[in-house]
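QA checklist item 7 of 12: single-chain prediction sanity check.
[x] sequence parsed
[x] length recorded as 202
[x] structure emitted
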Amino acid sequence: MAAILTSLRNTIIAGIVLTIIMVLFVTNVTGEALSFDHSYFAFFMRWLHVLSGVMWIGLLWYLNFVQIPNMPNIPDEQKPAIGKVIAPAVLFWFRWGAMATLVTGLILAGMNGYLMDAISLGLGENGTPKATAIGIGMWLGAIMWFNVWFVIWPNQQRALGLVEAEADVKAASARTAMLFSRTNTLLSVPMLYAMVSAQNIY
C-alpha cells in the first residue's frame, strides 16, 4: 500500500482502478448493464468537468484561504521556498485546471444541446430557466478562466520572478494577481450556485 500512496502517479492510477471496480460492482449488483451511448458519454464528460473544477476551485481556495493570508507569517528566509517551489507548482495545476474545466464544460453543453441557449442566458425563443442558470454559471466561469490566464498568471510570473521585472513592477503585479484571485473567489460562490441549481431545474 505504501508503494501506491507514496507516489502521486500510483495514487491516481489506483483511484482510476478503484473507480472502474466500483462501476463494475454497481453494475453487477443492480443488474443494469453499462450502455456506452450518448447519455453515458455525456455523464462521463460531466464527471471530467467536475474533476477539473474541483482541481481549479480547490487550488483557488487554497491560495485565498491558506497561502495568501499566511504569507506575512512566514519568516523572510523561508519565503523563497514558497515563491520558487510551491507557488509555481500550484499555478501550473491552477491554470490547467481552469482550462480543463472550461473545455469540458463547453463540450458537455454541446453534447447536451444547450450550449447556445446557455451562452444567450436562456433569453432566446427556446430559452429555459435551466439554460439561464447554467448560462450564468458558464459566463462567470469564463470570466474566471480569463482572469486566470490573462491577468493572474502574467502578473504572478512577474511577482515570482519567473519573468524579469523591476521591484516596483513586481509589487504592483503581486497586488494585481491577488486582487483578481480574490475576484475569482468572490465569483466562485455564485458560479457554483448557478451550476448546481441548474441540475435541479427541469
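[x] summary fact logged: Residues 1-34 form one domain.
[ ] second reviewer sign-off
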